[in-house]
Design goal:
Blueprint: E1 2-6, H1 13-24, E2 28-30, H2 31-41, H3 44-54, H4 61-72, E3 81-84, H5 90-102, E4 109-114, H6 117-125, E5 127-130, E6 137-139, E7 158-159, H7 166-180, H8 182-188, E8 193-197, H9 202-221
Parallel strand pairs: 1-3, 1-4, 2-3, 4-8
Antiparallel strand pairs: 5-6, 5-7
Length: 222
């Protein structure tokens, strides 16, 4: 299956992408991984992206699109892929449509993870990271430490990242609503969008997503 995963920040896209890709035996292609791989390998696209980033500028759509096209052309993506973080806007979605059409293939589904805005804020703003080891992550509501402000694993101080403040989260949500959310209407016009609730346990959301994708795949075959 060829799938695009969309949803607001805090919807659990990265977690669900990993589980879904494993269950469907297709590669998980994320924008972050594309950038890191191209920059670390010193590819021509990576050098272009790094030049923009070093100058404090956004990487142009055409560079991001070219990276995605190159990755989708790899042998492990021949039978499908799951795109996470791309396309990020309508122009990227239209470019993806053209690229797939040129290859004689098409998307099977666009999975929209739906989460109420207040829940997104609660999920992200409640995160606390250990200063000694950033791999130790807690949450004030969902997985609180035994002692407030202290890491259970190493005793390090727990803190809230600037990116996780409520004000920053709401700004990120506004960017999502204005830039990324319109791609849902773009794909609805093609009959590709399947929307599921991303509330509940991770396994419950994965089961919900797999069932929705199975229905979408069956519908595409008719």
């Amino acid at each position: 299956m060829r799938i695009v995963l969309v949803g607001p920040p805090g919807a659990g896209k990265g977690t669900q992408a990993a589980y879904l890709a494993k269950n469907l035996s297709i590669p998980h292609i994320s924008t972050g991984d594309l950038f890191r791989a191209n920059i670390s390998q010193g590819t021509p696209l990576g050098k272009q992206a790094k030049a923009y980033m070093d100058a404090g500028n956004l990487v142009p759509d055409e560079v991001t699109i070219a990276m995605a096209q190159d990755r989708m052309a790899q042998p492990d993506a021949e039978n499908g892929f799951l795109l996470d973080g791309f396309p990020r806007n309508v122009s990227q979605a239209e470019a993806l449509d053209r690229a797939l059409a040129d290859d004689g293939v098409h998307l099977d589904a666009v999975l929209d993870l739906e989460v109420p805005e207040d829940e997104v804020v609660k999920r992200i703003a409640g995160r606390r990271i250990c200063r000694k080891n950033s791999a130790h992550v807690f949450h004030e509501s969902y997985s609180p430490p035994k002692e407030p402000g202290v890491c259970d694993a190493c005793g390090g101080e727990l803190y809230q990242r600037d990116d996780d403040s409520e004000a920053t989260v709401r700004t990120r949500l506004e960017v999502y609503h204005t830039q990324t959310e319109p791609i849902i209407d773009h794909y609805k016009a093609q009959g590709l969008v399947v929307t599921i609730s991303a509330l509940g346990k991770v396994t419950e959301v994965t089961e919900r997503a797999m069932a929705a994708l199975e229905r979408a795949g069956t519908a595409q075959q008719k």
